[in-house]
Amino acid sequence: QAQGLNVGIVSRGYGGKAKEVPQLVFNASSAIEVGDEPLMIARRTDAPVCVHPNRALAVNHLIEHYEIDVVLSDDGLQHYSMHRDIEIVMIDGQRLFGNGFCIPAGPMREGLERLKNVDRIVISGQTRLNLPELQNADTMQLVAHRLYNLRDPNQLTDLTQLQGRTIHAIAGLGNPQRFFSTLENSGLRVVRHTFGDHHKFTAEDLDFEASLIIMTEK
Q1: Which of 9, 15, 92, 141 shows the greatest Cβ crowding within 10 Å of its Cβ?
Q2: Sign of dihedral through CA atoms 107, 113, 114, 116?
């Protein structure tokens, strides 16, 4: 977008229960309908987002309704019916490849040899393992520094202002431990509350005494 390109995004819409597909995602869309991550992406980027289990159909739907220069797929490396010009693999620097086996024996969707055919590998976080498959990988580091008040996002607090305080942290992520560690590394005392990925929270989930609760945007 910064380079003047019109960007569209496609996603499976995991967890959503859209009655019609393909489904375009707007700021006012319901996470229950379109999924939590597509809604968050649409709000953060202002780019047109389309969800469909068949990503190729989602791409076609975007092209039919918008002037699109570039389409990004939220996940979907193994969705081979979808044409792709560039493939980027994101790797968790701590968990890496688990036991190295494919589903259901392990966490992998494809074998490590697949990495030889992609255009770029990006490792999120630090890894101490020196694997030949990762020699040409780029690295990135998530940095958390601001907290947004849920009732009023214009109210911001810097994490450094909470050093030494005990807070309750809740997360419904694939790897919540990284979120908790980020807070602890910022000098906070963290009481951890872990929920499943894409968890649909209820008031009862937060029924604990806490003066300050911190959660991820998702």
Answers
A1: 9
A2: positive
Whether pLDDT at 73 is above 90: yes
Strand partners, 213: 168
Query: Which segments of 96-211 does DSSP mark as H helices, in order?
Result: 176-185
Reply yes or no on whether the pLDDT at 15 is more than 70. Answer: no
Q: Which amino acid is at 90?
A: M
Q: Nearest CA to 8 among 25, 30, 27?
A: 25
- Helix (H) and strand (E) counts in the chain: 4, 12
> What are the tens digits of pLDDT across the range 181-208?
889 988 999 999 998 887 888 888 888 8
Identify the helix (H) or strand (E) that includes residue 11: strand 7-11
Omega before 48 within 30 of 0, i.e. cis:
no
Run of H or E residues at 158: strand 156-158
State the Cα angle at 74 between 73 and 75, rounded to 5°: 95
